[in-house]
Structure formats: C-alpha cells, structure tokens
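Structure in, sequence out. Go:
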C-alpha cells in the first residue's frame, strides 16, 4: 500500500468525479495523475455548493516541506497554480507525472476553473446545445436549412440573394460551404 507523503497514513483508491484517485482519509489529500486532474477540473458533477463545503471541511495546511512521491519516491517539486480567485501550491512529480493535492485543494481547483472564461464559454455552449437538442422545431429548421446547403460544385446558394451569398462568402471565391453552415447556425 502506498503511503501519504504528508502524514504517512495509507492511501486508498477512490472514485472522484469519474476518475480513480488515491486519497488519504487522515489528512484529506489526493494523489492524482495529470490527465485525471484535467478531467476532474472540467467535470461538472459536483455543484459549487458541494465543492465549497468540501473546501471548508477538508482543507488542511499546505505541506511546507518537500514531499516524496508515493509512487516513485523521488522528491516532488512545488508548482504554483493560478486560477481566478485562487492560488494553490501543488506538489508535482516530474518523473511519474503524479500530483499531490493537500486537503481541499482539489475542490479549490475545480472552483477556480469554473470561474475561467474557458469554463464559462463551455457552459454557455453546453446550454445552447442542450436547448437545441430539446427543441424539435429548431432541429427541423436546422435540417431544412442544411438541406438548402450548396454542393461543392455550386458557386452560390440556391434561392439566396446576391447580397446574402456575398455575406456568406459564396460569391467571388467559389463555394464556401463552411460560411454557409455558419450562417445557418447563427440564424438559429
């Protein structure tokens, strides 16, 4: 059994936001690989309230001393992670790509990521896709618009005015199916 690099208690495999990670139940720290951390940061499984409670109940002091990686036993390096409203010092093993997060830091990372422009845009896009999928009328309109899309052999859109073809990039440069599809998407 691998030991916690902070308190030397045993690490236990657990499921966290759909990823398998190792947790220390004594100090609430997590050992996680880089790829799983990226997936977890972007997972919307836990609400902001749940994450805030986790930060409050599981937070521990940042490990000040150098830690040994529980996997390869090499010294982990301190790396600062900055996200909106948070600054966290992570312990990273460059050799085996593992990260140690002190108690509460994993939830803090998720909260910080949710405040980034990238996460806000991703939620907005997901809301648009969900709204589209829930609206059969919009789907039918999209299918109808798509059926009117030009083939690669056509120089302009069928039935469209010269001005509409110019705006969508269909005139003067030959067919531009991508411009037409973008025009359809933004009309919905």
């Amino acid at each position: 059994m691998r030991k916690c690099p902070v308190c030397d208690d045993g690490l236990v495999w657990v499921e966290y936001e759909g990823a398998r990670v190792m947790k220390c139940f004594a100090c609430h720290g997590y050992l996680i690989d880089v790829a799983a951390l990226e997936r977890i940061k972007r997972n919307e499984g836990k609400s902001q309230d749940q994450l805030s409670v986790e930060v409050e109940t599981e937070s521990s002091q940042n490990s000040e001393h150098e830690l040994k990686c529980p996997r390869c036993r090499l010294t982990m390096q301190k790396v600062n992670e900055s996200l909106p409203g948070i600054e966290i010092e992570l312990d990273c093993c460059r050799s085996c790509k593992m990260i140690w997060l002190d108690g509460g830091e994993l939830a803090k990372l998720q909260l910080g990521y949710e405040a980034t422009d990238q996460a806000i845009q991703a939620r907005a896009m997901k809301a648009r896709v969900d709204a589209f999928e829930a609206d059969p009328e919009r789907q039918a309109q999209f299918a109808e618009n798509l059926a009117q899309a030009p083939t690669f052999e056509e120089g302009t859109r069928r039935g469209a005015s010269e001005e509409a073809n110019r705006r969508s990039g269909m005139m003067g440069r030959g067919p531009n199916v991508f411009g037409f599809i973008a025009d359809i998407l933004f009309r919905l």
